[in-house]
Amino acid sequence: MMGPMGMRPGIILLREGTDTSQGKAQLISNINACQAVADAVRTTLGPRGMDKLVANGRGVTISNDGATIMKLLEVEHPAAKTLVDISMSQDAEVGDGTTSVVLLAVEILKQMKPFVEEGVHPQIIIRNIRSAATIAVKKVRDLAVFFDTSTPEGEDMLLKTASTALNSKLIASHQDLFAPMIVDAVKSLSADVDGLDDLRGMIGIKKIPGGDVRQSFLVKGVAFKKTFSYAGFEQMTKQFADPKILLLNVELELKNEKENAEVRIEDPSQYQSIVDAEWQVIYDKLDSCVDCGANIVLSKLPIGDLATQYFADRGLFCAGRVEDGDLKRVAKATGATIQTSTNGIFEGVLGTCGKFEEKQVGDERFNLFTGCPNDLTSTMVLRGGSEQFIAESERSIHDALMVVKRSLKSRSVVAGGGAVELEVAKHLREHALSIDGKGQLIVNAFAKALEIVPRQLCDNAGFDPNDILSALRRKHTQDADGKWFGVDIENGDIMDTFEKGIWEPSDNKSNSLSSAAEAAGVILSIDETVINPRSQDPGAANGMMGGGGPKPMGNMMGGAMDMVNAQKGGSRSGNLGQGVSYMKGRGGG
Description:
By secondary structure, the chain is of the alpha+beta class. It has helices at about 25-40, 65-75, 80-95, 100-115, 120-145, 150-165, 175-190, 200, 270-290, 305-315, 325-335, 385-410, 420-430, 440-450, 450-460, 465-480, 505-525, 540-545, 555-565, and strands at about 20, 50-55, 60-65, 145, 205-210, 215-220, 220-225, 240, 245-250, 295-300, 315-320, 350, 355-360, 365-370, 380-385, 410-415, 485-490, 495, 505, 530. About 45% of the residues lie in helices and about 15% in strands. β9, α9 (about 270-290) and β10 (about 295-300) form a beta-alpha-beta unit. α3 (about 80-95) runs antiparallel to α4 (about 100-115), α4 (about 100-115) packs antiparallel against α14 (about 440-450) and α13 packs antiparallel against α14 (about 440-450). The protein starts with 18 loop residues before the first strand and ends in a 22-residue tail after the last helix.
């Protein structure tokens, strides 16, 4: 039916203030937003990469780890969040290569942008990207060099992969100290079938501010900081040989009845029997711990002053409020079983170790369990001058641990320094000649995108990337032994990076290529973006529509809530404060 004025009535499907965009312009806008995100981490790649300082309400972080920076940026653009996801995935799966996977994904998008602008259908582009990625991953596997990790050559391979992972980190100058510690810790896990899968749970990292970084050390066993202790702790025995260890998830404190508890007595003298019963409950628990033959009692829950003095008088050591992760590591190392009750404790649930001692490390006292029967667990104690330095050291150690773990699993490595990317790019260019139609151009563009890694390594080191890349292309194309040639960061030239010991797990490169291609495909497949107004800010709709006029009360309330949330370290819903910005909306603007 026509309206009274001869016009069709409008059909409203979406809520007022909803921002929609579609078509080619929207696709280009998503690519531009991804490029803006990549620019934030571009300069952190490689041994000469720069660090980023990110300050928020929770503190200051100094890092050049791609996944850490991407997480701290709090990217708001819906399409660009895909880059954060692949960076976090790479960090969880491989540990290293978090920056390169973002750069690869964005460079693929950048190389595909002209095809989008010229009207090539996105599905054709996506299909050829996936095809090129499959060929690239297969080529990496063909290039991989396999090692037997039980031989001295295999041990050397693990040391070199750990050193390469640490090369671009803040502690690169101390890799001679940390690389053997990392390899030693991870190799001890490989003795168990499932040990490598629980790397985070089996290897503890403890941070102690102060001292020199060279004072960091590895404990083959479990170490944790002395917990909160009550009076009587000073009288405890602080050192045992072959002790029996009892682990509890029980509170050993005297508990009075609740204030609103009702107890009916017929005679005032009966009240004392109630008080005595309360004491008897705690004494029965303590007697059970002592009678089972334990020398050390650890509990996840508090151990009060009465229990502390009771154990001290009988020559036992106790610690309450032990962190869950530390308690589980002690259980795995000593063979003890965590008990949720003190009833029926027998010798079979107790653990043991070769030696226990409480040791002073810097300003802190640490409890050390060494010579454990199950030597899978280990603890790395990190020292350093500032909290930011130690926090970045911990992230660097985590990356190197994951790289060595991946090397042990795949038992194969490839050369770093951009050598693999250039060899794969050469292979893709040769393959593209066998493709008809637009696919040839797209595969060629994919091959060119891979050159971003050596190009960015040169840029970050201050060298001319055009000269070095030209020399590398010639070497890879003309010389039969040129497949391992990459960027020489030290001299601004090219070199055989495999011969120089710059090795990375082949899984690192395979995962980077497949994740980057997958992310590029996801972003190119988006043909429409719908952004709903935020429900907690009623004025968001007006702001998106571009309306003027005075701000409604909802906006004032939103501003007040922002201030409260910011003080609590939470997220903000409306406008940010002066001088603060975040990536939001299409195009990264």
